[in-house]
Amino acid sequence: MAVATDREFGLFIGGESAEPAAGDVRGLTEPATGEPLARAAMAGEVDVDRAVDAARAAIEGEWGRTPGTERARLLHALADAIVANRAELAELEARNVGKAISSVKAELHQAVENFRYYGSAIATIGGRANPIGGSLLFYSLKEPVGVAAQIVPWNYPLMMATWKLAPALAAGCSVVLKPDAQTPLTAIRLGEMATEVGFPPGAVNVVPGDGPTTGAYLVKHPGVDKVAFTGSTKTGGEIMRLASDPVKRVTLELGGKSPNLVFADADLDSALPSSAWSIFYAAGQSCEARSRMLVEKPLYDEAVATMAELAAGIKVGDPLDPETQMGSLVSQAHRERVHGFVERATDGEVVAGGALPDGAGAFYPPTVVATTNDTEIAQEEVFGPVVTVIPFDDEKDAIRIANDVRYGLMATVWTGDPARGHRIAARIKSGTVGINMPYTAFPGIPFGGYKQSGFGRELGLETLDLYLETKSVIVGTGARPINPFGL
Q1: 141 with 470: CB under 8 angstroms?
Q2: Do residues 275 and 393 share a domain?
Q3: Is 114 found in the same domain as 74?
Q4: Residue 433: what are its φ and ψ, rounded to 5°?
Q5: Do 225 and 264 fall within a single domain?
Q6: pLDDT by residue (tens digit) across 6-16?
Q7: Rounded CA gap, 258 and 128, in Å?
Q8: Which residues share a beta bridge with 260?
Q9: How far is residue 293 CA from its own chain's centroid?
């Protein structure tokens, strides 16, 4: 029997499962089959109040007194718990999101490493001290910002939760985590495991719910000191407005329309299969998916034909089959949205995929569209398994096209000229640039965007500063009285 069947998932507040005040419990379905999966409680305003109160009590109580060495131990213990429960978590995630379990297992590995990295990085938290002249001494203290509201999207519910939780908990903040209403199951389990390994009640609270209601109320809540959000650029802009009164710290990891530049001198045995993986590995439902493939003109026709062949060879099917390379989209509604972009791409040529498949589930085929960069499908975030293949003339033209979108999250460059790779990396407006490799995010390497892809960084040491206040202390050390007016 599947791990989620016949279970009702409650909210997680103050170290225990909680019923929603308004009684909102929703049935969840598997996007790959359309069959019932589980029932999950949804938080309303009263529940958010309870969660924020629990987080505030934790930081003003036991959690606020927990030293860094103990926080490090707890983070490593939570990493161990993920490893011990990895089979359950992988199935929950694959069935709740519709994603291939092979991808989910890789995400679980990073989830573990996120906690291990920040468990070790706690040792780097510290102020500095120095004399500032005369009889004055300065030193600084690093203190947690307070209660952090963290909102994660439906495409990576568990991994994104760890991206947010690990640095916040390392810094000593308490957290109210809001997973998406469609995909709350692994986030709830993560909250349960945090208490099981010894995090005090209220350090981690999980309140699934809808963004425009529960999410907005959480962002505006006067008991919240900092907001971290991953999701769409449109919603990120709304969060900035909501957090402006009262003024709160905000970090945003938003949308992308990331370029994948392939020069004619590239190693095509790596470049083209990696280009297919870069868009299709999560069914294109990834903010940094390289959805714009820019190809030097002498190679263009060959690249289009090869990408069509590669797309047709992707193994699409049951998310729980270990041989599956691409599962379903997250919902039928999202599939309709993705297909709408393809249907409107009349100024391009659909060379692979692009048709709604028969049968149950929210599947959509890997799709390749030959087009130009000024089309809707090349400019807007489709968030599905759709790649646009766009020609360019030379290096200068490639950089121009790569930067000619409102986003700037990720870019990949394929070239046999090492100097060119570094030149382009310096000129592309993107938070991360890969040269001759397709991978994107690693614990310890800052990840985030330029332009409308957001601001702030995840996964790096820099992230800790987003959850820490710096307090300056100036001390008089002289032996003589201090009498500035000479009275």
Answers
A1: yes
A2: yes
A3: yes
A4: -130, 125
A5: no
A6: 689 999 999 99
A7: 39
A8: 293, 412
A9: 22
Contact 144, 172 (CB under 8 A): yes
Domain hosting 224: range is 8-254+453-471
Place of tokens 């958010």: 48
Are the C-beta atoms of residues 37 and 31 closer than 8 Å to each other?
A: no
Residue 139 resides in a domain: yes
Mean pLDDT of the chain: 95
Which residue pairs, CB below 8 angstroms and at least 24 apart, start in 19-22?
20/44, 20/47, 21/46, 21/47, 21/50, 22/46, 22/47
Domain for residue 444, yes or no? no
Angle CA(32)–CA(38)–CA(44) in degrees, nearest 5?
115
Active site residue 8: no
What is the layout of strands, in order, in the sheet containing 36-41? 8-9, 36-41, 25-29
Amino acid at 85: N
pLDDT above 80 for 4: no
What does each C-alpha distance from 388 to 34, 266, 284, 345, 484 come to in angstroms?
A: 29, 19, 12, 10, 69
End-to-end Cα separation, the chain, in angstroms: 84
Give the total number of structural domains in the chain.
Answer: 2
**Tokens, residue 95:** 């069935």
Residue of 192, 253, 296, 458 marked active site: 253
The DSSP output letter for 387 is E
* Whether residue 375 is found in the same domain as residue 459: no
**Which of the following is catalytic: 287, 288, 296, 381?**
287
Does the structure show a pLDDT above 50 at 403?
yes
Q: How confident is the model at residue 1 (pLDDT cuts 50, 70, 90)?
A: very low
Is the pTM value of this prediction over 0.70?
Answer: yes
Q: Residue 237 sits in a domain of what CATH number?
A: 3.40.605.10
Whether residues 312 and 219 fall in one domain: no
Specify whether 287 is catalytic: yes
The Cα-based distances of 157 to 6, 177, 180, 186, 223 in angstroms read 21, 11, 8, 7, 24
Return the residue matching tokens 């769409």: 232
Secondary structure element (H or E) that encloses residue 333, with its range: helix 332-343
Residue 348 has pLDDT above 90, yes or no: no
Which tens digit of pLDDT belongs to each residue from 267-315?
999 999 999 999 999 999 999 999 999 999 999 999 999 999 999 999 9
